[in-house]
What does this fold into?
Amino acid sequence: MKKVVIFGVGLIGGSFALALRQAHAVSEVVGFGRSPATLLQAQQLGIIDRIGIDVAQEVGDADLVLLATPVGQMAEIMQRIAPHLGSHTLVSDGGSTKCDVVAAARAFLGDKIAQFVPAHPIAGAEQSGAAAARAELYVDKKVVLTPLPENSAAAVAQVRQAWEACGAKVSELTAQEHDQVFASVSHLPHLLSFALVHDLSQRDNRDVLLSFAASGFRDFTRIAASSPEMWRDICLSNRDALMQELMQYAQELHVLYQALEQRDADTLEDVFSEARKVRSNWTQQ
It folds into this structure.
């Protein structure tokens, strides 16, 4: 690609740029963002070649525009870029939810909807910002594309090739399938991690509790160090599926509560054994 334009040059967008550079898959990267300081840092780190000034000028001749901002900001960006997209310019995103992003694209990209190929790289980290970006972030990590009926095979292939150049393993789901799957295995765990840390933070003996917290607590709560803004948007965007997961998880907690209340050792051991077996099999895949 001759030119890639990235909105949001933090962990996701910055790593995408660095990976493409390392693979010699792009000649020029232009960055847009809300923070001039972050954009300047991204330029100094070699993530982008230039800081974008004029949206119309930059997206008109771009091969690919990547929206790597929190999902709550994507609709406004789509509205800004829609009138200026070149006929060959593809648009993709790195959002953790897909149904809401697709709806925004249909609303604001209009007759250029066929140029939008939604994507979700499964390679986040608790760090954020340009300084967190690294070229190896996507190596052997999954990226899910959720192609639209309007997308041409060539458009999907081009976005796939861009992510594969970053070292990613690319899969495809529908937007609906994606949001249901990730409500279970990503959005719910983040919500639970944030909730546990918040619960402890409200207690009078918080400092004592945290002073004795060890590796188990650290492992479980690592993702509570993630961006609050990003995860606020994700939770609200995937609200319905996430509420269903919360209800199901609450039922599981109630089973454990009853087992403890009744001193039911068999149930506790059965639950723990099944969980251990499933996780062990998963980690060996």
Q: What stands out?
A: The mean pLDDT is 95. Residues 177-283 form a domain with the 6-phosphogluconate dehydrogenase C-terminal fold fold (CATH 1.10.3660.10).
